[in-house]
């Protein structure tokens, strides 16, 4: 049952082969038995899930079911969920029970999906390995000594291990695509503004975007159909119609023009990852696509620009965690300054503090022009690189990450961790969509192929990814962990 | 001794009269129980996002148009970052680099009836913070976030004012404009208008500005004058004693009538302004701005000019009667009802304003409506009642005795007697009752008789209970007395 995709489960529910209660119960059982080894969930909402499953079954009995009614899924613990702890992976919010639902959560509830709980993540989504979580690192189900990637590592690991058929993640610099790649699943970061950010705890507001993580592109299309669209509560969400992403999944790829950015195949790329990606590109050629090399000349400025803009926004977004209204408050503060200092010192972990310090510094008087303004100029150049490339080709392809999942504890130096995001970060800076699909293995660790499209090209990305998954079976591989414990 | 010149600039924070907050749907009503009008957005809960209230934009633009300002096509919200317990997000959303209203100008009326143009540097939109409550919490501080997110228009003047009176006049002009536009209730006691004053002094004739102090918490017209007076004296004394003014923020304490240092420039926050990534730039198309321009009401300066030019009022009367929209509307209704601008102005400025001041009421609280007053004035003008009786009628209306002037006149029998037969009868009676005075009158030098006739007029008026027409009494008395000579 837990090997099935969202599409298959939806069909089984529609055909009456199983009930949402059975399905939900089955996954909850798996979480209870297996997640002790993975640590992919921070909160499991078993009771609410079973209640929601019963409601879904009743709705179906009355003929009120939609395509996804009764399908279980999980939410990264960055989405505010009414009445449920929403920690963002931080001690700061360990006691925070959100009093409202994020728009994405509202929409998924309206679609009749059943949330099993909240998945582990890097603290405030700051990290690429899930090791910065207050709740401890998540293990990669393919290899328990490896990281699942981050920051949506809990969501990726839970899907890969068959603890849930799909999960929602967020991506500020690669936080959906890189863990999807590390865990051998499919993860889509939509265009900035495609999915509402309301109720998603902000890390870097101009870069954050929510998206689906599942086994297949088809599953991602199902989920995107429900979460995409304009939201009056998010001024940066775009008032643009949402197509039916399922409709175009099977469109033929003959004549598709693929660009391979030469900067994505340079130094620092693992040779086996490069080989897997090139092999994937050959599959596309066999499907009728043409391939050419393109250049994104400002790629190497992406990481420095990102580490100015994202921490700057974060330093401001995280100022509200001051111990005054909600979240962690230190014991017996001496005065206001002591309250601020100790609450924040105790509530935030090292990586969060590091980024707040960087951001505070770069926005300071005398540094603003040199850092923040310059980074915004770089951002425009990076965006222009992509727009220029999309004049020539339909999609870009490359690795999602320079290497497969690395070992837990392997990246001690923050900069080497930051360099993990070299192929994903510029996508957020440009605001374009990207998807990572399973495309092979290095040893027992999965490799992700990243496909990028121009703004609002989600339908095309899902189509291109789906056709690959029709032609290959990398996405059908299951980690031994999931099988052994079946 | 050195002659000093004072240089003053004002920053006026005006709470805009939108129904909901600038970035959320919560109500802006004043005086609710603490924290009952603060929604998730106002509380700065994790995950919430601001959505700009269009009404606040429209009000800001209306102000800009009223002060002949440039309205830039694009304005941008920035975050002003600092920690304070009543600032829920740890930043205030404001406009630092691209304000919604560009440079403009206000004509202010001075006490001598002259006017002076004061330039507006810019005006920008921002959100208000909450309030810290230091009482009743046993040494702790309570936070009320009802006010958090209330839209403010911060109006920044150029340093064009040269004395406290001009500063107060500027503040009054702003008050008058925003209340005319209906974009603020202008209630200073409730904090709907607050003011920071930048003050510096320099030797007369010096071109460069002296070092300024920013005085905060100056929240009434009177306090503006007093705070400036204190600050000017402090700075001059300091310099004359060989000291130097330092750039700092000072707080005005109205109870002690002094300013105190809050923080120096070195202690000032680095606000780390940057564009708010949660809000799109505000783009105003020309049609929108022109639409608002077309809907502007007649503004105080235009009204003042019309009152002088068309209605023939004095500069002083025109200034006072146009200072607030409520006052102007009241006056204009009185004028329309009675048909005479000067009479209307006299009554509004005289009897009515006196009564309002005595009872500490504003024009909108007047127990006598403009229609009632207008009808009363008409009755004086058509000689139905005497001026003296009119005051009685006014008092009766003020006390709620009667719905209209005519009611009161009827009920109290105040209708002026113009029947000369009735008046002659009263005169005859008075002459018959006052033989000694009549003898005195007849013996007096002719030039002194004019004065002496007053006694008889008084007696006749008394006999008529004020209803006899005084001019008529005067004329008839003179005839009759002179006939006795």
UniProtKB/TrEMBL annotation, chain A:
Pfam family, one: Amidase
Keyword Protein biosynthesis in record: yes
Superkingdom in the source lineage: Bacteria
Keyword Repeat (UniProt): no
GO MF annotation, one: glutaminyl-tRNA synthase (glutamine-hydrolyzing) activity
Residue ranges occupied by any Amidase domain in the UniProt entry: 22-462
InterPro entries: Amidase, Amidase_CS, Amidase_dom, AS_sf, GatA
EC number: 6.3.5.7
Keywords: ATP-binding, Ligase, Nucleotide-binding, Protein biosynthesis, Transferase
Enzyme active site: 76, 151, 175
GO cellular component: glutamyl-tRNA(Gln) amidotransferase complex
Record's catalysed reaction(s): L-glutamyl-tRNA(Gln) + L-glutamine + ATP + H2O = L-glutaminyl-tRNA(Gln) + L-glutamate + ADP + phosphate + H(+)
Family assignment from sequence similarity: Belongs to the amidase family. GatA subfamily.
Subunit structure: Heterotrimer of A, B and C subunits.
General function of this protein: Allows the formation of correctly charged Gln-tRNA(Gln) through the transamidation of misacylated Glu-tRNA(Gln) in organisms which lack glutaminyl-tRNA synthetase. The reaction takes place in the presence of glutamine and ATP through an activated gamma-phospho-Glu-tRNA(Gln).
Protein name in UniProt: Glutamyl-tRNA(Gln) amidotransferase subunit A
Organism: Vreelandella zhuhanensis
